[in-house]
Amino acid sequence: MIAHALPCRSFRDLVIHLRPAALGLLLAAAPLGAQRTHLLLVTGLGGEPQYSDAFVKQGTQLYDVARTQWRVADSSLTWLAEDPAKDARRIAGRASRESVGAAFVALSRRVGPGDLVVVVLIGHGSGEGPASRVNLPGADPTAAEYAAWISGFARQTVVFVVGASASGDFAGVLKGPGRVVVTATRTAFERNESLFAGEFVRGLASSEADADKDGRTTVMESFAFAVREVAKGYETQRRMLTEHAVVSDSVLAARTVYAAAASSGDPRVVALVAERKALEEELEKLRSRKAAMPEADYERELERLLVAIAEKSAAIRAVGGRP
Q1: Which CATH architecture has domain 9-255?
Q2: Whole-angstrom distance, CA of residue 93 vs CA of residue 59
Q3: Partners of 309 in the beta sheet?
Q4: Residue ranges per domain, the chain?
Q5: Residue 260 has what pLDDT?
Q6: In the chain, how many H helices and how many E strands?
Q7: Residue 82 to residue 283: CA distance in whole angstroms
Q8: Edge to edge, what strands does the sheet with 93-94 contain?
Q9: pLDDT along the chain (323 residues), means of 10
Q10: Which end of the chain is more exposed for a tag (fewer CB within 10 A), N or C?
């Protein structure tokens, strides 16, 4: 189900009867079994110096966020760009169709079950349906090719962000189980310059996207921040809003954090984390039974588990652990 704007209806329906504490927990909960985070960042052709410079600036910010905040290992952090000479220390190579495909192959050799794979494309978009693309030097990979490249990550959670104009059709092409697809526009016909990528990266780099200030930013929080700030930008400039970002799975986006939880040697933290994991497993089992349960019973049990997990997270923080 595609959520076209905030608030996302499917997400709101799920939590409408829950207490604020439970809602906050759902927004902060990480996917079960998350281990390591990997980032493949691709910044495309600017066409004009102002856009080329903006894409490099956004790439630099996101690269540094991944390395310092998400703790992504150097071997799992790849940035391909229009001109590698713009930042030879960070940029691994030129963003061509061949190098992007090779980067996915290399990434597939590093990931493990339960890992988080984040792919971010920043640039100018074009096309329609499976032929949609983000403009790179030389031949452009299509949305269909990106779909083929990520098909091998079935045992990982994939977050695929297309921060480009005319990117809306990527959502339908890339969607699948265990994937969150974020596009800067709703359709391929929203072709004007997009502000989404800049605000998306700014929210992560400044931690402003961390709405509940718990130190862990979810994909949904970063999406919500960017949508809100883009709207403010258009309003400030007295322009009609011509881009409408979408997220493909609002529930998974709300549960997925960019940084894997840090381990702790404190036995109290270890015990509390194990107890929380058991509660999270109960939550997953409950969600799998939703269709067979009366709605009131499901919501009552959902709230009980969410509150219990929130209390466990608070206990972890209280003894100095990372929630």
Answers
A1: 3-Layer(aba) Sandwich (3.40)
A2: 13
A3: none
A4: 9-255, 267-318
A5: 55
A6: 11, 9
A7: 44
A8: 93-94, 77-81, 37-43, 116-123, 157-164, 179-183, 246-247
A9: 41 40 43 70 96 97 95 95 96 97 97 95 95 96 98 96 97 96 96 94 94 85 96 92 94 88 64 80 86 93 90 81 53
A10: N
